[in-house]
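Q: What residues go here?
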């Protein structure tokens, strides 16, 4: 069985944090790994970030990734601008923000529609900072008690 987004394989767990440098240090110590570099979420001209259906060029975050075979831990430190990350931090504090899935056997828009049919609401979407793909965060707090992130690599469908 492949689930409503074409897969049932979790590829990432995302944590929202207040201090990414302290968080990555602690995670590296816990995991016995090197600290990953910190990057940013990219420029709006590429990312085209939308939150609650509105363009939010000021929504940015610092990011760090711990990579494992087939899985990733993402640390996210949001700026003060409205975003799913900022809303989570202000409402819940630091912690697990999302589980991510690569969409499988369908395009992103179909996966989003399937999630909406399931009862989820689209919170935020945009392009990867290097333009190589896109993401969408859907609130599934009522249904699944978390946020679901959908990931799609490759050129955007026209």
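A:
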């Amino acid at each position: 069985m492949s689930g409503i987004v074409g897969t049932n394989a979790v590829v990432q767990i995302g944590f929202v944090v207040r201090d990414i440098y302290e968080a990555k240090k602690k995670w590296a110590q816990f995991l016995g790994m090197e600290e990953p570099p910190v990057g940013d979420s990219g420029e709006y001209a590429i990312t085209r970030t939308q939150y609650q259906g509105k363009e939010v060029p000021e929504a940015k975050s610092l990011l760090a990734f711990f990579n494992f075979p087939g899985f990733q831990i993402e640390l996210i430190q949001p700026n003060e601008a409205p975003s799913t990350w900022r809303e989570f931090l202000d409402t819940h504090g630091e912690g697990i923000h999302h589980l991510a899935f690569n969409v499988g056997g369908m395009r992103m828009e179909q996966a989003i529609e399937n999630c909406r049919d399931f009862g989820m609401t689209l919170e935020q979407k945009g392009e990867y900072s290097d333009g190589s793909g896109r993401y969408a965060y859907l609130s599934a707090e009522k249904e699944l008690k978390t946020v679901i992130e959908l990931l799609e690599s490759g050129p955007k469908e026209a």
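A: Context that may help when evaluating the design: Residues 31 and 66 are 9 Å apart (CA to CA). The chain has a mean pLDDT of 94.
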